[in-house]
Specification:
This protein has 261 residues and is of the alpha+beta class. The protein has 4 helices and 12 strands.
Length: 261
């Protein structure tokens, strides 16, 4: 009996060490932004959000960028940006740790700004008629988000929980969230949900133990909020902290709709 307990303890210790190896490597190699003060970090636009001069059609974009400081060694912050047809300004929807309520929807002309030193990447990019169809559903889902005043960095609900929840709620909206989006597998209403990338399923126990199997996610296993996986469709390994190694994921929405690009 004692021997079995010792073997289980050793196995858990090895598993935990493997899960933490990526984040520790990110910290050791200084691959996360954390020097100086967050208020002086770069917030320059990345050039991913089209201006009104580039096209007057509706746009929906989803972004991810490394979090500031030590949290960036573990994962990313995600947000949703929408712009109505003919509008100059965008609506930016996300959950912030330092705000109460944590859910923030505000007007901006630069939804693609660096996230305190970390340049964002696009997860989804819907335009024209496809975006126009999605915006009412996104606004309704944001208003109905069940945890607007709650933020827990681990295991959730946090900014990634919010983004994944909205994606699941809005028919036709898909986004393959990165394996480093800690909290995306924290389910607010049950243990089973659709995979955000579409054509898949996520099973999760409080965000601490989970499994995602999907067309675009591939296979992901989550333990203590940290996930690893493999994508056979666009071949890549997914590692905790480090992220995706291999072929880049598809940006959802590209090629959809008939509006301006």
């Amino acid at each position: 009996m004692v021997g079995r307990i010792l073997r289980m303890t050793a196995g858990l210790a090895v598993m935990l060490a493997l899960l933490l190896a990526g984040p520790l490597w990110m910290l050791a190699t200084e691959r996360v932004e954390g020097r100086g003060h967050w208020s002086t970090a770069d917030r320059a636009p990345a050039g991913l959000a089209p201006s009104a001069a580039e096209g007057s059609g509706a746009v929906v974009q989803l972004y991810a960028a490394r979090a500031w400081g030590w949290r960036g060694a573990f994962g990313v912050h995600t947000w949703i940006a929408t712009r109505q047809a003919g509008a100059d300004a965008w609506r930016m929807h996300h959950v912030l740790s330092w705000r109460r309520p944590a859910l923030v929807s505000r007007s901006t002309h630069t939804p693609d700004r660096a996230w305190y030193g970390s340049e964002p990447v696009l997860l989804a990019d819907y335009r024209g008629e496809a975006a126009a169809r999605l915006i009412p559903g996104i606004e309704a889902a944001v208003a109905a988000y069940p945890a607007p005043s709650t933020y827990r960095a681990w295991p959730g609900p946090n900014s990634n929980t919010f983004t994944a929840w909205v994606v699941r709620e809005v028919e036709g909206l898909e986004a393959t969230l990165p394996v480093t989006a800690v909290g995306k597998d924290y389910l607010l209403d049950g243990v089973l949900a659709a995979a955000p990338g579409g054509r898949g399923v996520t099973a999760s126990l409080g965000g601490l133990l989970g499994l995602t199997l999907g067309r675009d996610e591939g296979l992901e296993i989550s333990l203590l909020g940290l996930a690893l996986g493999i994508d056979p469709l666009r071949p890549a390994l997914k590692l905790p902290g480090i992220g995706r190694l291999g072929m880049a994921p598809a940006i959802k929405g590209r090629g959809e709709g008939s509006g301006d690009r």
